[in-house]
Structures
1.
Amino acid sequence: MQPMAADSDTRVAKTGERAPNSWGLGDGQAIPWEYAPAPEARDIVALKERYGLFIGGRDVASSDGKTFTSIDPSTEQPLAEIARATPADIDKAVRTARRAQRRAWGSLPGKERAKYLFRIARILQERSREFAVLESMDSGKPIKESRDVDVPLAAAHFWYYAGWADKLDYAFPGRVAKPLGVAAQIIPWNFPLLMLSWKIAPALAAGNTVVLKPASTTPLSALLFADVCRQADLPPGVVNITPGPGEIGMVLATHPDVDKVAFTGSTEIGKKIQRGVAGTDKALTLELGGKAANIVFDDAPLDQAVEGIVNGIYFNQGEVCCAGSRLLVQESIADALIDKLKDRLATIRVGDPLDKNTDVGAINSKSQLEKITELVQSGVDEGAEIYQPPCDLPERGYFFRPTLFTNVAQSHRIAREEIFGPVLSTLTFRTPDEAVEKANNTAYGLSAGIWTEKGSRILSMVSRMRAGVVWANTFNRFDPTSPFGGYKESGFGREGGMHGLHAYVRLEDR
Ligand code: NDP
């Protein structure tokens, strides 16, 4: 890391201004620094030119031979061609999963199922670098996040649910836990491997088999996971992976021989799926969008809160359903907190996802970048004040500057709609009652954050938050033992912990 001449560029940040990475000095002023590149090597990933569907333990072409391309959003370059599942392929995958559930997996003793799950967890750890690099290439997320968050947490979910596989009698005392059967699982592009593990690990632990549809922009880590299933000698057909367009997700969810549907993604598609399975006896869990309030009281340790705010909204480019996208700050400390936040934003490094220094990588797709750009413009048009730190964006790829809005009104679109990008909207409050009122004034109810020194205030605020997860003096912390899910338009059902296991069993009397 080499300091640049101090007089070359100490200045107040302006939107869109070009500048290297920098250390904040106060009032948005920054001394820029050049970071030496620290690229993670790509050669650990042996990308194939073409990937098939994974059905019955084998790579198969789609029934009409069609493929689609997965690209690297940081370079816009193609990575691989992927088989595109048809309705006939979905039918084949569901029938294969049903056979595997009846003949092999459903009747296997729990301790035998556990061995496979432990094996998968261990292989994920052994191949963690390969997964991290591939995930960052396909999704655009910074390598330090895929390496330190996504992949370790994915393995942790398999470890955790492996532990439950032979203990279902203890998880549900006095009841007999039976598997539901075949689970259709549809996952998004923001945490591809992690969402796969949230869904596959509890399903398998409880004796179900699965057909999983990854998002079209991020199919590669799921297809590498297919290789892990083979390496673990998982019986063929227990896990099936069928990439394809959104419509094929609906074909899968509404297939008559599917017993359980688990979906993570937008509220709009979640509602469509709910309509699609209405009137059937399919079990359904929906993990949808969010517009979380991160509430900072005047007694909070401000520097710590700033780190939590940054982690809450700029982690994974803000493409996080539980992102702390609404900052609610007590009026008396608003100016001081915003100054500190601007300083901190000046140090955020945006760029190559595979560079170990990068804090904010590429936006996942062109359409997501367009959505973020449109919503940010609406914030400007509706009268909010925008701040973006100076930073160089790569010339190619889908990148967006970390963005902070102040003077935001509850009625602004940027305060109501899920942006799913590195964009923070700031509102103020005077009293705890007003904070509660504003925090809960949203169609969503997935998560919230509270920053205060007072334990009693934490307890009182937590009980008044209409959100599935409330973090106190931290944000975006995950653990496989802890349930996660929402209220209202954020969906229903819980993933993680024993609640996540419950979603994959039918409880019968002894
Ligand atoms: P979607 O909800 O469209 O995508 C999520 C998953 O659902 C993908 O696998 C997608 O497949 C699939 N899908 C799409 N259409 C259908 C359908 N009709 N029936 C069944 N499955 C379907 O999210 P987007 O990718 O369009 O993102 C749009 C917005 O959704 C984002 O801007 C963000 O606000 C929100 N979102 C929320 C997420 C969360 O974690 N809560 C995750 C992702 C997005 P395919 O990729 O092939 O389209």
Note: The chain has a mean pLDDT of 94.
2.
Amino acid sequence: MTDHSFRFTHALCRSPARSVTDGLRAVDMGAPDPDLFLAEHAAYVAALRAAGAEVTVLPAQEAFPDSCFIEDPALCLKGVAILLRPGAPSRLGEAAALRPDLERHLSAVVELPPGGFVDGGDILCSDDEVMVGLSARTDAGGVAALRPLVEELGYRLRLVDTPPEILHFKTESSLLDAETVLATPRLAATGCFAGYRVIETAEGEDAAANAIRFNDPVMLSKGHPRTAARLTAAGFDVVELPTTQAALVDGGLSCLSLRYSLPGEEQ
Ligand code: CIR
């Protein structure tokens, strides 16, 4: 298997619930509009399909306002789903609710042993390394429980810090290829990407850092022209997608899918 950190055959998404209006946010800039959120979500799913993904869109779960951010309750590596334990009390139940779907779609499901919390948004994976940012949602106990699971799958786990001002490590970073990350200047300045080539988001465009490389395209939040130009100049094929509604509840592009390949079906 090569380039498994950005070449995928499948994605799992969850339709935004009407209750997304109650989604968690650090600063209230108004509630998202559920219909507009659905339209932006549909564009996202269409872009994944255009990039070659077989996408399953799971039904909305009204009981969990943040459940469209399906990246947080699980981590998919080499066809295996690791069921995580989200650190926000209102999101804890999302993992158990997702389990049957992971069992249906992935080749195996393993559960994070007790001991702490991990949100998928704090995990950035390259081909052989899993970086996990400690944050308000992800603690040392959770990372200690996660370490043997990812090592078993052939990755090394590296603990990094999520700056206190940001929700998740991947709020401000994403993988562009096996050696390159996109990150905000603030996160890059911590030195956590030593060994990687770093492309920084342009000034005032921090929100562009929550991007995804899915097969050929890099999907980038619309409205960040100077970061888009940097990526294009570096040779990436940029597809811009609207994220206005996810942004109101502190979400971005990576949070909206679990991306994976099944053994034998790698691209
Ligand atoms: C939350 O606070 O949990 C949601 N409102 C946003 C989650 C975004 N997820 C992510 O960055 N992976």
Note: Residues 23-25, 66, 69, 71-72, 88, 91, 121, 167-168, 170-171, 249-251, 254-255 surround citrulline (CB under 6 Å).
